Amino acid sequence: MASAVDNEKKPTKDSLRVNQTIPRMGELLLPGESVRLVNVHHAYGRSDAGGGIVLSGIALEVKAGEFVTIHGRSGTGKSTLLHIAGGILPPARGEVLVGDRDLFRLSDSDLSAFRNRMIGFIFQSYHLAPVLTAVENVMVPALLGGQSAGEARKRALEKLDEVGLSQKAHARPGEMSGGQMQRVAIARALINDPAILLADEPTGNLDEQTGAEILALLGQYHRERLVTVIMATHDSAVEEHATRQLHLAGGQLHDVPFETEEPVAHNPREAGQ
Amino acid sequence: MKLRHVAFFLRRNLRRRRGRTITAVGAIAIAIAIFHLMAALALALRSEVLGKIEKIFPERSMIVRSRTLDIGPLAFSPSLLTARITPDMVRRIGELPRIAAVWPQLPLTAPALAVGSLAGYEGSTDIVVYGVPGEMVASDVVGARGFTYADPATSTMPVLVSRYFLDVFNLGLAEGQGLPKLTESAVVGRHFQILLGASLLALDVKPENVRKVGCEIVGLTQNPSLLGVVAPIEYVREFNRWYHGAKATENYAQAHVVLRSTEDFEAVAKTLESWGLQVEGQRDTARRLRLAVNGAALILLLFGLAVLAMAAVNIVNTFALIMLERRGEIGLLRAVGATRRATMGLLLAESVTLGLTGGATGSGAAWITSRLVNGALARWLPPFSLAPNHWLDERAALFAFCVVLAIVGSALTTAPMLWRSVRRWPADLLRE
Lengths: 273, 432
What we know:
CATH topology of the domain at 65-82 and 107-272 in chain A: Rossmann fold
Largest interface: A-B, 35 and 30 residues
Number of strands of chain A: 11
Number of domains of chain B: 2
Distance between the termini of chain B: 25 Å
Oligomer: heterodimer
Structural class of chain B: alpha+beta
């Protein structure tokens, strides 16, 4: 198994050509188009004796509008899978296709534009900039997307209002609770109306009630905006929002049918064996 | 990312991380201030002292006089044995190749008594007067009268006075008797009289044969071979003829020979010595002094650079810590859509702003210090001829250089760390 790649690939002629045709936000993942992970492998550190392998030949297709949850024990590679799907970590081997484009063959500017317009990331530990207020944190992706500060602020305030946090718009992360910070992170993830929402254990640091509120919020977005959601979670309460459940173990993904507790092999290669 | 967006992040980062901003700016400011002061001292040393050395010990010139024979305590120039500096000899010297100018120095051979008042005191003293061509002292003449001949019966005679007399007065008489110190501007333009044929010392003066000449001081000279009163050569020639009549000679005391190049010194000296003349040059003295001054300036600059280097190590460490604690922030920016270039630009703008603020603060403080020190020393120290006009260089270019140095230094110290961070994948940065 190859080890993790640290540096991003240099732009190629192909990727520059892709740049000229990159769609505006909301247009990349058209109805019927999917996010596909093809034979994705990944490992951390020394891979001798298989100790560092976290993903081993993952094949996953998430169609537009799906709400997919990925369960699994800590350290099984759920976050890594989301990072790879979101274009912020390249797989050691394999491809990530959005429509017919391979994310990791895009140039830095194209990939950055993809992250900015198409992906909304929600992290377990929020990753809010401590020097920025809630509204300023939410503004960041909009500013990076080229919006004016006034426009970005207006949208950020709207998003904060949508997540029920308008009263904390000018508070800094240090002045907010975990649940409030996660709401800010959700507002930030949603400000550019992404087609795909990647949530990495968004309720992991929250109490049960706050976690349920956060899940309800994400479920509402999925239903109302038809946002594709891929969520890594330990939280069984998410079942009511999910359209599909997967289990990650031993570097492999398995379908978890809603009616049964027994995992079913999802990897087509494995399924065919 | 647009400039106004860079400003958005920059303003908030610098303002809300106030402690860290002040620490970084302070470290840069202190290092730049020390470097600025060392450089100001070195530059002042070079520009002020080297200029004076060149003036006092001109490398391209030599003094030519009749050869002196030393016999025990006596030194004399017997006319039968040594060549004289006659007008013909001056012409011959001037015709040599490699010679830029020859300026003869004609002594006044009549007794002369200067009479005038200084600081409210009337006084008179025997003086030595030399006549020289105007070109020789052109740079010392500041008075409106100029240094040209005009009929002494109807106008004053322009004279230069040795700058060292001022030192003697200021550091001796004025200090001892509590008199006000004299500055160059206070002396230039003063009038006094020379009584030709009169003397307090000479025994053979004839009181009936005294001529009054009105004089105006038009400047001071630091030329060490012009210790006395210097007048245009035409006056001295006329006064010698008036006093000695037909017996007056046209022989000069010495001649200043200016060479086209310092490299010609040896060859010209050899030729003149072969004509029976004695040659004196200050080239070696000037070179040794210049070497010492340049060495001292270099040591000061090296000290300044050493301080800067030590500070740079600390600043690099500070920036490294900042980068370390902000890896997550860089990862987040990249994850939500900042390109490598935009992230790099944003953080470089921050370090450049710190460098600009620190550099301008430190260099500005050093510049103000230079002005205060120069002002204080000018007031506190007695005026003397070798004192520099500035002890610390005040030129604006040094301020600009120090600010640019701080900006470039900050950018260069952070750029490699930044580049290493932005090249990494956002997920790796976020995980750390």
